[in-house]
């Protein structure tokens, strides 16, 4: 039934995404209550490279931001706890993909201090189906609610 206010969109979610969301929800149950970040925190799309997509996180809040990731010595921080939501101009559906579940022996908690900027990356392998779509990245910090990027086109 359409009231004329807008069209409904079909939402497609894979079983892997549901499993990732379930595991993520269980991990959140053991966390501290959400405390909203004060001040300006931005997560901006920078560019897409061959194997990954780059973002810049700027912590303009008075609190540190902590999240799971991999921090190589001379490279950008690779995110491991995030979701990407995309929609296409050609289809009326919205799709959300979660970070791939895998064993990451080098994963650790990354801390971004107030006033600090860091470059973050996400692996493009599972995002290829969204090429040309409008997307938004949600970073899932240890405390607080999701930090959303600006919209970008893959």
**Distance, first to last CA:** 32 Å
Mean pLDDT: 79
Poorly predicted runs of 5 or more residues: none
Class by alpha and beta content: mainly beta
The CATH architecture comes to Sandwich
DSSP, total strands: 12
- The helix content, as a percent range, equals under 10%
Give the topology string: H per helix, E per strand.
EHEEEEEEEEEEE
What is the makeup of the main sheet?
6 strands, mixed
| Integer tally of domains | 1
CATH topology: Immunoglobulin-like
Instruction: Indicate the overall shape.
Output: globular
How much strand? Answer: 35-45%
Question: What does this molecule look like?
Answer:
The protein is mainly beta and about 150 residues long. The chain has a single domain, classed as Immunoglobulin-like. Helices cover about 10% and strands about 45% of the residues. The strands form 2 sheets. Strands 1, 6, 7, 10, 11 and 12 form a 6-stranded mixed β-sheet that branches. The mean pLDDT is about 80.
Question: What's the quick description here?
Answer:
The chain is 10% helix and 43% strand.
Topology:
Elements: E1 10-12, H1 15-29, E2 39-48, E3 52-61, E4 65-70, E5 77-79, E6 82-87, E7 93-98, E8 108-112, E9 117-123, E10 134-139, E11 147-148, E12 152-153
Parallel strand pairs: 1-7, 5-9
Antiparallel strand pairs: 2-3, 3-9, 4-5, 4-8, 6-7, 6-10, 10-11, 10-12
Keywords:
single chain, 154 residues, mainly beta, Immunoglobulin-like, six-stranded mixed beta sheet, 43% strand
């Amino acid at each position: 039934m359409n009231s004329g206010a807008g069209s409904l969109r079909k939402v497609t979610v894979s079983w892997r995404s549901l499993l990732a969301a379930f595991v993520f929800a269980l991990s959140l149950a053991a966390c501290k209550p959400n405390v909203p970040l004060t001040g300006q925190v931005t997560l901006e799309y920078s560019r897409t490279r061959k194997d990954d997509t780059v973002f810049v996180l700027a912590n303009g809040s008075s609190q540190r931001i902590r999240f799971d990731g991999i921090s190589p010595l001379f490279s950008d921080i690779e995110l491991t706890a995030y979701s990407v939501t995309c929609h296409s101009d050609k289809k009326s559906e919205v799709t959300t993909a979660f970070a791939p579940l895998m064993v990451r022996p080098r994963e650790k908690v990354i801390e971004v201090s107030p006033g600090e900027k860091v470059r973050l990356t996400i692996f493009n392998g599972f995002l290829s189906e969204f090429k040309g779509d409008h997307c938004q990245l949600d970073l899932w910090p240890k405390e607080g609610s999701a930090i959303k990027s600006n919209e970008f086109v893959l």
